[in-house]
Prior knowledge:
Layout: E1 6-17, E2 20-31, E3 36-43, H1 57-66, H2 75-82, E4 88-93, E5 98-105, H3 109-121, H4 127-148, H5 150-162, H6 176-181, H7 184-194, E6 200-206, H8 211-220, E7 243-249, E8 254-263, H9 272-283, H10 291-298, E9 306-309, E10 331-341, H11 345-362, H12 366-379, H13 387-399, H14 406-415, H15 419-429, E11 435-441, H16 444-452, H17 467-476, E12 488-492
Parallel strand pairs: 2-6, 7-11, 7-12
Antiparallel strand pairs: 1-2, 3-5, 3-6, 4-5, 8-10, 8-11, 9-10
Helix pairs in contact: 1-7, 9-12, 9-15, 10-11, 12-14
Amino acid sequence: MKKAIIFLIAGTLLGVSAFGAAKIKHVSLKIENEPIVSFRFVFHAGPMNDPDGKNGLAHLTAQILANASTKQNKYEDILKKLFPLASGYFVQVDREYITFIGESHKDNLDSFYSLFRDALLNPAFLEEDFNRLKTATINGIKTNLRYSNDEELGKAVFKAFVYRGTPYEKNIAGRVGDLEKITLDDVKKFYQKNFTQANLIAGLSGNFPDALISRIADDFAKLPQGPCNCRQEAVKPAKIEGIQVTIVEKATESTGIHIGFPIDLMRDHEDFHALFLANSWLGEHRNSSSHLYQVIREDRGMNYGDYSYIEDFPRGGGAQFPPTNVYKKPQLFEIWIRPVENNNRLFALRAALREVKALVEKGMTKKDFELTQKFLSKYYLHFAATASERLGYKIDDTLYGLKEPYLENFKEKIAALTLDKVNQVIKKYLQADNLKIVFVTNEADKLKNELINNTPSPITYRTPKPAEVLEEDKIIQVFPLAVKPGNIAILPLDEVFK
Length: 498
């Protein structure tokens, strides 16, 4: 069998439109023997660009492009035409970027691309589609987010809390009151202003015909050239002093907890891979061998899992590996404690903070460092299992301004690390004293008083535990929590993103 050959191209798609000579940034991965052709159209626009009082406009606009009629076809006809092609497209909305992702077998490429292109370039903006998607978004916040998905609720409140006072504070789906005021004319104006050539990176992967690159160039040259949404306002969260807490009060039998703080460490920094390794040991996402998982779930059986991150990881409840095209600066250090029984919520918090403090003070051991280094040397291969995901990483290289490809150099960067380097970086970036915490739980006033009074939180088990675990529990249950009364806010459930 002929060996696959991959061509990596990054440059400019050239086209001509009514606006004159047009230039569209693009990233292409030509992969022989890959029959699925993947598209990514990444626009530098998102909720951070929502006008004041209209949080949700970017998300709603993106949903209308991906899930509504075009000038050529009604939405139900688009679905009927996509079905026999076994192809489809969808949208991923993040705070700073909106990414439209599509895939098709090369044999159906022409028919699929025509439908996908029209969705982005020729939206019909019908009132019926607008009302359908606006209603669905509002109901999604009122019912699904608030009442059906405690973990996503906690994550959304946590992100807004951590980035308070910055454009990143805006909720991705929006706020109910703002959404109710948004009009179809607002959507059209947002589309014209933000979906421009200057804001676009066009991505293509698979065994596509070379002529497709030129075709995309010509088609998307029809977009307004427009100015780039390149960072218009510095995202600089206020310095966190002490432990600050938001308690979302909800009648629930379990408590979800989110802990963290902004961290201005990007992939292009020399310290990034060292902290990546340390975090992998501490709380690799959905990895049962990570330390927090072992302490909280494996040893004590308190919940489903416990993870930590040094880059934002949206939609973690349904994903195994890191998402792409969700660039942020600053990034954040985050610990996600999946729901525990309400009576164990303070114990779980203390256990997590104690492990972070111990990591900062003692560093990693030689054994843990070497095991994690070996683990990552192979695990990273799962980060981009598909051509579409590899394309996502190549686009991220452009977003992060990397001189060296991230995935292709990951193994080498990890292998070059030393234990001393990793432990120095841990002390430089991690801490457990100045951070923000979000609880989704019941009896908020009781929890507030326990935090203020540093009330001990002993734990009991339904099944016997080893003596060493019980001895450690005595230390964890009194781990100090220095929370000032003025640093705790209770948020009623119906007020969330109201």
